[in-house]
Structures are given as structure tokens and as C-alpha cells.
Amino acid sequence: MTVRWGIVGCGDVARKRVATAIQSDSNSELVAVCRRNKEKLQQFGSEFHVPVATTSADELIQSPDIDAVYIATPVNLHRPQTIAAAEAGKHVLVEKPMAMSVSECDEMIAACLSANVRLGVAYYRPFYPVIRRMSDLIEAGEIGRVLSVSATTCTPFAINPGEDGYWRVVPETGGGGALMDIGSHRLDLFLRMFGPVVDVKALCGTVAADYQADDVATLALRFASGVHGILHCCFGSTTDPDEFAILGTQGRLVSRPLNGGGLTIEHGASQRVELHPPADNYNAPLIADFTVSILESLHPTVSGEAGREVNRIMELAYADAQRTR
Question: pTM here?
Fold first, then answer.
């Protein structure tokens, strides 16, 4: 069986990675795409040779020729489109962050459970080989007992009002700013590697930008295990440290850049360096995993429940930042 995909929202992410990831997967076929802008839709459909291109999300979702829907629209549309797809019997892989709120996540999970369809969230970094390597080293006791984890990530966000993707800094459509858009990826890794978070302290604000969403966010986390976490993320910087570090009682693991798969293993003054690069197309392992979950009736690696937990941490962070402000 081949999983027949439709993409709702043919913006930058879908053009750069998602469409190609689906078309390169041996168990998948891209049969339909949707975008409201007719001219850009036609360009996308022509570029990727997709049989069906429609400006109606409902038409795509209701199509009997679709088995799974990749939702790559602004965050405020994730909930209604996921529920509509579930009710139409379609499996759903939704872009991150999963939704505007935890309550929306709960509705999406419930709809997919009721319809007996798979629900996944497009956090693709769990499939990075360097993340698997770091997890294996921790399990083997390479750095002793873990004390803390930290991540720093930035992006220039060189998008102007009216351009594709600007919705990310409009709170009504994106839900937040740097934390929701890029910080969420690292939170997913934190939770996956170190378990549940029991305490969240946060500073979120607009420092250098001319929009309302946060361009700087800093979170301090305490995990149930006692491990501490620090997340720092920014919009508007031309320099991206892209650092992911884990400190233990006997050493430290540092991946920089995380997106390149570089890994430094430190023990006191000694170091060794490894390279574990991700797939050329970051989304390819995510698509392959979700497709297998459909074909073999398995839970996807990045489930709706996992996406909900990321949203829960961000919701707590924004609430704490509002109190401290």
C-alpha cells in the first residue's frame, strides 16, 4: 500500500522540504496540494508535478483520493483543519507548534482518537543521528549523572509584513514569536531526552523588533528527575549559535551546530570530536516514520501527545513571563 498525501499550506517549509520528503519516500505519493493564493499554488503544483492543486482546504481534506494530510498553515488553523481531516478519516501530520493552546491540542488528540487516525507533529530533530548518539552516551554513563541541558538558537527572521511567513510574529495567527517558532523544537528534545518538566520560569519580550511577538525568550526548567534546563531563543540575530549542550558530573556533550551534527565530548581538559550529520532533507525521516505508523498501525515517534507537552511548557512559560513583567 502507498500512502496518498495532500499538503494544506504550500509555503516556504512545504516548498523547501516537505513536498520533496513525501515524493522521495518509497511508501508515499503526493497527490494534492492546497494554497489560497492561486498563482503561488499553480507555481507549486507545477514545480512538484502534483496532479491536483486546489485553493480549498476542505476540498482537499474531503477527497477520497487522500489518506494523509500534512498541515503547514499558520498555527491558528491547525486545530480546525486537523479536526476536519480526522472527521474525514484522514491521518494528520501537523506542523509545529501543534496548536495555539493546550486545550486546542486536547481537542485535536480527541478527534483523531475518535476517528482512529494517526496524529503526528512535525518536530524532526528527534531523528537527528547526533541526538541519538548523545542519548546513547548518556545511557552508557559517558558523562556521569546529568546535571543540566541547555540550548541556544537564533534566526534573522528577515520577513516583512505581507510576505510569506510573517504570520509567525502575529500573536493571533502564530500564538507567539521566537519561543513558539524555534524554541519549541528544542523543548521537544528536552522532554524526549529528560522526561517531564515540573517547574517553568521564563522571560519573554520584544527587545529589538517592531512587532508584538517575543523576539527574545529565555526559559529555566526543572525536570522531575531534578535535571535543570535552560533555553534561549531569539528572532532578529544574524548569528545563530545553534548549540545544544548537556553537562554531567563527569563530562559534557556539546553539539554545535546541532543542525550540522557536530559533537564534542569533553572530559576535563580532554576532548574528542565526532560528526553525525542529519539527513539532507530534515523532514524525510519524519515523513518515513509517520508513513510506517499508518501502514503498520503504530504510534508515530512524534505523537500528538508529545506535541501537546511542548505546548504545555510554552503556555506555562508565557504565563510566568506575563506575571514577572
Answer: 0.96
